[in-house]
Amino acid sequence: MDSIKNDFFRVADVDKHSARMDVIKVDEDQHLVFGWFSVIEEGGEAVVDRQGDVIEEETLEKAVYDFVLTARTAGDSHERIGIGRLVESMMFTKEKQKSLGIDLGRVGWYGGFYIDDEEVWKKIKMGHYPSFSIGGHALREEYTETE
């Protein structure tokens, strides 16, 4: 994959077209929701998403920075943009984890959103949106595992 372009971040029901990234924390008083937006490696193994795609670390990192610089907006179920605003974002690469003296056992993008939309917030609190789903465009290439 050479490039990836983010449309916007989406809080969504899990379906066959989205990789499941569970919501880890919901702060009901502050309308905040946190979790892994994308995990691309777990226990040293590449993660294959629900579409059969594998995202390289450099590609996700570039997409994360592009999102933070140009979008920072949450959407509702891949439909409606503007239901929330980014409040936290960290791309945990292997290099960053090493420099921080941590090993999370995974590589990926963690963050949080302030949810502005009351209806979406109610759905999150009720557990209707148990995970995050990110959207974007990428050039698909054949994936070959390397050792």
Which key terms come to mind for this protein?
147 residues; seven-stranded mixed barrel; globular; alpha+beta; 3 helices
Provide structural commentary.
By secondary structure, the protein is an alpha+beta fold. The chain has one domain (4-138). Helix content is 20%, strand content 44%. It has helices at 57-70, 94-100, 118-125; strands at residues 4-12, 21-27, 32-42, 45-46, 73-76, 80-92, 106-115, 131-138. Strands 1-5-6-7-3-2-8 form a 7-stranded mixed β-barrel. Strand 3 (32-42) and strand 4 (45-46) form a beta hairpin. The relative contact order is 0.31. The model is unreliable at 1-20 (pLDDT under 50).
Q: What does the secondary structure layout of this molecule look like, with pairings?
A:
Blueprint: E1 4-12, E2 21-27, E3 32-42, E4 45-46, H1 57-70, E5 73-76, E6 80-92, H2 94-100, E7 106-115, H3 118-125, E8 131-138
Parallel strand pairs: 1-5
Antiparallel strand pairs: 1-8, 2-3, 2-8, 3-4, 3-7, 5-6, 6-7
Structural class estimated from helices and strands: alpha+beta
Radius of gyration: 15 Å
From the spread of the alpha carbons, the general shape counts as globular
The strands making up the biggest β-sheet line up spatially as 1-5-6-7-3-2-8
The parts where pLDDT drops under 50 for at least 5 residues are: 1-20
What about the largest sheet?
7 strands, mixed, barrel
> How many beta strands in the DSSP annotation?
8
Q: What string gives the helices and strands in order?
A: EEEEHEEHEHE
What is the helical fraction, as a range of percent?
10-25%
Distance between the termini: 19 Å
Q: What's the domain count?
A: 1
Instruction: Estimate the mean pLDDT confidence.
Output: 81
Which percent range describes the beta-strand content?
35-45%
Count of DSSP helices? 3
